[in-house]
């Protein structure tokens, strides 16, 4: 199979790129499950854009830089916030319906770290609305083919140039190649590296792992964002309780009813996520309780049901009536701030390979992502990448500026000599996720990170050996990619000898000014 543009992933980034590239050539969108299955589809709170009368791109820029704890690339943030209003209007022109005020203006919500109300939302299912809109638009756009249940395994490199991917048909087990003039990674993040995550099972960091194995530069993988509030229930797989709930006045309390957030930050429940997640972690360690509680029982029950229908109904299904009782919550891995390094046009360090959305590290989020900036980042940079791929494809690939934190890390070699005839992929996946939860989570120590790195190196080499000896399956590919992402996270975390934003290490509790302009870059060696 051969196309002009090959898009890996059917979330907001992949679909936006595809719709913008299709007028210039044939586009194939590959997706490993059915087309709507993506992190995008589960996004709740909304999409940030400075469209309010009291708002400006300068204020959005400042809030993003503040959340990013000194590590954002200012130029990338400027691109984001200046293009944000235009791109959300584009979504609305395609048919996205965001909530409106009684006077017909767009209703703007508030989330942590934002100094203005600037979150466009569709109740608490904004991602579903965006995915629905983009899928319809893609269907109506000539030259776009969506290939479901096709899992990308490996990038094809010819003389150092990306020429497409090797693919597994997950329904038949067939293996084949798809070639293209330009390939876009839009495969999302790697939340599944952690045992507790808000992300759906597809989020196994495939694009990050494939790019690393192909020799692309990877950046800032230590910055994993933990969302402060996912439902604590033994039967619920980390269901997200949107930050918008705190934006509407939700209060975090301990089991004894004490409101603890003002003890940690003057912005209380609306402090940026890293601060809220760490405060909850500290309270849980102090009290020994398994969860804290998010209380919105003081709000009008009818308003709660209208504003948060998904959260209301899902919690009710698990026996919690959020209009009458506080919601038991715990933090969970939510967002990968780092990823495949790109320039402002979505170009990676490999010729003809682009990356956009959560798989990419553009420099927008720095050490901590501002709430609701990720859907916007995917939208803005996917359009730019499509523009570049359709007009300036043959320019030589960009290089990141030199950084003072650089880790040379070659891909994993298979060290095992015994040929495996079977391998327990599920056990390996669980082992990685448990280890990262315990040793690479919200509060880190050098000793625990070193243990994780050591265990991961052994496990990753075993996985590599088994992978090479057995026919590829969804399970084997994902376990291999999770191991790669876990290694990238631990190596990056060990290389950054300071605490900053989401990366908090007890051995180095201070932020060091000399690292402010230094992303952690993992380079091929
Ligand atoms: P995704 O939407 O994750 O899409 C990735 C696609 O790649 C999928 O189609 C997947 O199947 C495909 N794929 C992956 N690997 C392969 C492979 N090997 N081969 C083929 N296909 C592959 N952000 C906000 O800004 N606002 C919010 O309100 C918000 N709420 C969120 C709520 C939840 C519960 C979660 C999990 C995230 C939320 N986020 C939010 C984050 C945001 O949803 C994601 O960062 C964003 O949707 C990522 O979009 P994407 O297009 O990069 O990737
Ligand atoms: C949420 O609704 O809390 C998620 C928002 C985000 O991840 O940006």
CATH architecture of the largest domain: 3-Layer(bba) Sandwich
Whole-Å distance between the termini? Answer: 33 Å
CATH topology of the largest domain: FAD/NAD(P)-binding domain
| Estimated share of beta-strand residues | 15-25%
Number of strands: 21
Helix content: 25-40%
Can you describe this structure?
The protein is an alpha/beta fold. It has helices at 12-21, 39-42, 57-67, 74-94, 126-140, 206-214, 243-247, 273-287, 301-307, 309-317, 374-391, 425-439, 446-469, 474-495, and strands at 2-8, 27-31, 47-48, 108-109, 119-120, 144-148, 150-158, 161-169, 175-185, 218-219, 224-231, 251-253, 292-295, 327-336, 339-341, 353-355, 360-361, 405-408, 443-444, 504-505, 520-523. Strands 1, 2, 6, 7, 8, 9 and 16 form a 7-stranded mixed beta sheet that branches. Strands 17-15-10-21-18 form a 5-stranded mixed beta sheet, with helices on one face. α1 (12-21) runs parallel beside α11 (374-391) and α12 runs parallel beside α14 (474-495). The longest helix is centred in the C-terminal third of the chain and has 24 residues, at 446-469. The chain starts with a strand and ends with a strand. It binds flavin-adenine dinucleotide and succinic acid. Flavin-adenine dinucleotide binds at residues 8-14, 30-33, 37-40, 42-47, 126-127, 151-152, 186-188, 198-199, 202, 206, 240, 335, 357-359, 372-375, 378.
